[in-house]
Amino acid sequence: MIFTSCGSDKKSEENKAPELTEKQKDNKMLAEKFCKYFNIALQIRDMDTQYELTGEYEDEDKYLLLQEEAENIENEMSNHVEMLEKKYENEEDNLKIAQADFNFFKKECEKCKSDIEKLMGWDTFFNSMEQEMLSDYDANGNPIEENLDYGWSEVDQNNFLDDCNSEYEMDMRAYCDCALEIVMSMYESYDETNELMTEDDVMEIAEACSYALDVTEGWSEDVTEGWSEDVTEGWSEVEQNAFVQACIAENDADFMPAYCDCALDIVMSMYDSPEEAELMTEDDIMEIAEACSYTFDM
After folding, report:
1. Looking at the structure, do residues 106 and 164 belong to the same domain, yes or no?
2. Which domain holds residue 282?
3. Residues 117-168: pLDDT tens digits?
């Protein structure tokens, strides 16, 4: 019995699955979030399909909760990926290691293969992901160093930022930082930018970086000076004018009168009163900036 027991224990040890590395545990956790997201996304898609057929949701409250949960998990995945990048940035990196990590992650995702197949197509989705991974390595399997400066010298970058910021009296640093990233990807040098940049390029950059323009910056103080204490609902003419003037004053650029008129229309459609508008979120501001970006070429 003793020998049988020992032999049995030894065999059990041999059949025991190898312990996961720390990186594998992290990737396993990411795969679990990934599968949870796809499960919820599939439920949302099915409810959308049902809505298209009947014109109503069987359980609208559940639909809204699923939407919120999907957004939360998406943020969790994004934060998890960012954490992994920082955690392992100083470790050895080559195509062989990356391929092993990818294969492990894909294997873990087989738990939700049917959900991914229904939504994206299993092979299509992971082939695309693998190609993106392969593009990060050269023919020898070494990582391709990302050059965020695109060959621009520090002097050229500073010259562009100085020119951009000096065009406006307002604080445009966030906007100009965004513009610089795009311009460096389009032109090889600061001099080439001055020579070749077209009006269409300027408009394209303005639209892409519109999120950096906060049209409500400062208006919680300035705009309220024009608000009537007797008006609790709706937007009076005085309040509308106060909003536009404060918006223009905070964003001193040629296109701002048209931009602020556009912003006012959207704000009034979103909020019943100036008091409610003080609850505006960062997402609301970005949505307004994107919707009104067409005014940049007026």
Report:
1. no
2. 219-297
3. 998 899 999 998 999 888 888 888 998 776 556 778 888 888 898 888 887 6
Nearest to 88 by CA among 147, 140, 143, 32: 143
> Residue 176's CB: how many other CB atoms inside 10 A?
22
Cβ neighbours, 10 Å, residue 69: 15
Does 112 fall in a domain?
yes
Give me the number of domains the chain comprises.
Answer: 3
Segment 219-230, tens digit of pLDDT: 444 444 444 443
- 149 within some domain: no
Query: Is residue 30 within 8 Å of 77, Cβ to Cβ?
Result: yes
* Phi, psi angle pair for 143, to nearest 5°: -65, 140
Lowest-pLDDT range, 83-87, 157-161, 236-240, 290-294? 290-294
The count of residues in the chain is 298
Cα–Cα dist 81/27, whole Å = 9
Backbone angles phi, psi at 16, to 5 degrees: -65, 135
